[in-house]
């Protein structure tokens, strides 16, 4: 593991097939050259990620995305509304698509996004490669939203961390499949209502299912701290630590994701709050209720998965 702020150096490491953790506006990504199957295999190995869970490809612009996937009118609308930004589109791969098949776990579709973070963009331009990058955490663990989180999860691994402070949004991108009728596969800071407004149609939500082939990453246990989570807590039991939202309940150890009760602030603090609460060593984190509107849908999605039993995922 190595920390750096040198983008040229990081670009060279990517060209050589190495792993680079990069900041994006959502969360940190663990990036590798998406054209190089061996480099991409290193991502799955380093994360301990199941081979059936495909990765997102990051590209610098729409033109590059169009080289890899079958473009359509919905992709055009959403890219105009939200790229660069925290939206991932799943589209059919072009027949001659050079992206290594292992990136999309052998599926004939590809998840693709143009990130907005200036360092991610500079890195994409400097290396001149499409970058496969899942979130930079051990598979199933809490997502990394700063360089210290990445370092915690990949100690002893051959990973260059391009450090740049805390990510702004703090939750992974919204994922929408546009292969057929649009389906929101994962909620994020771009809300369901914003997608419907941009496409002028109703958009279904993927069913939670551990083995659904159209949403292979939507495992029910995910984002999980060591402690168990008790959601929608209205009191704190002896020995529990508290994840608070708004005016806190009484508790010995509290991390408040937003004293003002602001959902955007809560999303940006959520994952570091879970990591911080874990450090108290309690067996259970009580979580105060957080409203489900807007970005609250994504917050509650992550909390539900973090609370799910770790049954072999
Ligand atoms: O904000 C983000 O999306 C971050 C940053 C680094 O870009 N990345 C991220 O990647 O969250 P990851 O691997 O943690 O989540 C990717 C999600 C998974 O749920 C995966 O199953 C889904 O996207 N996915 C990837 N390719 C897919 C495909 N071809 N079809 C359906 N779902 C796909
Ligand atoms: Mg992830």
Describe the overall structure.
The chain has 313 residues and is α/β, with parallel strands linked by helices. It is 29% helix and 19% strand. It is built from nine helices and 15 strands. An eleven-stranded mixed sheet has the order 1-8-2-3-7-4-6-5-9-10-11, sandwiched between helices. Strands 12-15-13-14 form a four-stranded parallel sheet. Strand 10, helix 7 (192-199) and strand 11 (204-205) form a beta-alpha-beta unit. The longest helix has 16 residues, at 263-278. It is globular and about 60 Å long. The two termini are 26 Å apart. The relative contact order is 0.16. Bound molecules: threonylcarbamoyladenylate and magnesium ion (MG). Threonylcarbamoyladenylate binds next to strand 5, strand 6 and strand 10.
Question: What attributes characterize this protein structure?
Answer:
313 residues; alpha/beta; eleven-stranded mixed β-sheet; four-stranded parallel β-sheet; 15 strands; binds threonylcarbamoyladenylate
């Amino acid at each position: 593991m190595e920390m750096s702020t040198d983008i040229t150096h990081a670009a060279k490491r990517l060209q050589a097939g190495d792993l680079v953790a990069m900041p994006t506006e959502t969360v940190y990504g663990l990036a590798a050259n998406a054209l190089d199957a061996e480099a991409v295999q290193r991502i799955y190995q380093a994360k301990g990620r199941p081979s059936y869970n495909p990765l997102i490809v990051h590209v610098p612009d729409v033109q590059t995305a169009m080289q890899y996937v079958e473009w359509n009118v919905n992709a055009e609308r959403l890219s105009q509304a939200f790229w660069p930004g925290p939206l991932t589109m799943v589209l059919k791969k072009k027949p001659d698509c050079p992206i290594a098949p292992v990136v999309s776990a052998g599926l004939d579709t590809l998840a693709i996004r143009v990130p907005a973070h200036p360092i991610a963009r500079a890195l994409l331009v400097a290396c001149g490669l499409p970058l496969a990058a899942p979130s930079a955490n051990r598979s199933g663990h809490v997502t990394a939203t700063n360089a210290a989180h990445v370092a915690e999860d990949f100690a002893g691994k051959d990973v260059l961390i391009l450090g740049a402070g805390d990510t702004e949004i703090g939750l992974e991108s919204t994922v929408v499949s546009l292969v057929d009728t649009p389906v929101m596969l994962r909620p994020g800071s771009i809300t369901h209502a914003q997608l419907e407004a941009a496409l002028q149609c109703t958009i279904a939500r993927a069913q939670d299912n551990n083995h659904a082939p159209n949403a292979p990453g939507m495992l029910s246990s995910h984002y999980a701290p060591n402690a168990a989570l008790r959601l929608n807590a209205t009191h704190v039991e002896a020995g529990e630590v508290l994840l608070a939202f708004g005016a806190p309940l009484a508790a010995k150890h509290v991390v408040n994701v937003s004293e003002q009760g602001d959902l955007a602030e809560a999303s940006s603090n959520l994952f570091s709050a879970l990591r911080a609460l874990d450090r108290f060593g309690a067996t259970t984190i009580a979580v105060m209720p957080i409203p489900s509107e807007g970005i609250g849908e994504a917050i509650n999605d992550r909390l539900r998965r973090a609370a799910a039993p770790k049954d072999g995922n």
